[in-house]
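Can't paste images in this forum, so I'm doing it all in text. The chain is below; anyone willing to post the predicted structure tokens underneath?
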Amino acid sequence: MKRLTWHEFDARITKAQAKFSARAAAGIPKAEQFKGGAHGERVTARVGVLLGLAFLICFVTGLLSHLIQHPPSWFFWPSRPVWLYQVTQGVHVLSGIAAIPFLLAKLWSVYPKLFERPLVRSVPHAVERLSILVLSGAAFFELSSGLLNVAQNYPWSFYFPQVHYAVAWVAIGSIFVHVAVKLPVIRRALTRERAPVEPSGRGLSRRGFLATTGIATGAVVLATAGATVPALRNVSGLSWRSDKGSQKLPVNRTAVAAQVTQTARDPGWRLAVVTPVGTRQLTLAELRALPQTTVDLPIACVEGWSQMATWRGVSFPDLLRAAGSLPGVDVRVSSLEKTGLYGVSTLPGEHTADARTLLALELNGEVLNLDHGYPCRVIAPSRPGVLQTKWVAMVEVR
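Text version of the structure:
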């Protein structure tokens, strides 16, 4: 084997590097390939506004749902109108679904930025790129995990509500950072007389791309909105959870899963109502002997689906008076369920004073079946389904 001199070795290395660089450069798309209407500054800004609006609505309505389930001392949530939570949570899920095509469109519009060189030009540019990386990761996590939650598919070991809530703050924070860094560009792009003329290229025009994005977003929302908008139920082919279930109501957690099949059917079951004056034990027959109230209330799940139903039972004002207490006090409701995360809930005084808040014994004209909470369950207006405690064993005035 011929031995190479140092100069020959160096020349070969230089030649190989040049060849590698040429091949790498040939494989990187040139910026000129992305000069079509879909990649213009104005398109990016407009899609970004829509995406930001969808995320903001999703964040605010999700924050409301979190505060209802984990209320701080200052938080207040009304019991009227009865459909309020049904609307806010439906909007939360649908705005998240609408954000998916907006996010994909936004990423496609800024795709050429991936090939800009140098990668980092300044500190603001580095902050911008970092905010995009964090925003993209948080957005993809929120939207994908939210969709899996809607489908009740949990391929992870963490507690979904807690992690979903935490990452939502990361996502909204990165959005504000990104907007702050890009504000001059956004202003220029949204001001028609100041926006630069953008060259046309192959593919959709700017208006065509925006129209396609709008149509795609409308289609996915329409396909799923029937889960929360009854009027669209027959045209929403991908809607989940409607009136298909026992007693015309979906069931998220069955009696078997809650391990209450024997205790709920026990003839010795008694409802304990604990007040400052003492504890009263009520049989099912005694509950039925109290004044009965019939109301039409929706049950609305955190997954976004909702369904109106007719409930009959003892109103909480009547129940508290029968036990020697006054309506309008906070009560702690405990279930026969011992293994779930929602076996105990707190019913605020706003709801215990409302005659439409029931300890329900019947559903849609029939005695509650086991999966819907027999022998009795809570149904309160404008409350998440996870807080409508089933298989109630004890009510304690706090």
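The domain at 255-397 is CATH 3.90.420.10 (Sulfite Oxidase; Chain A, domain 2). The chain has two domains: 31-232, 255-397.
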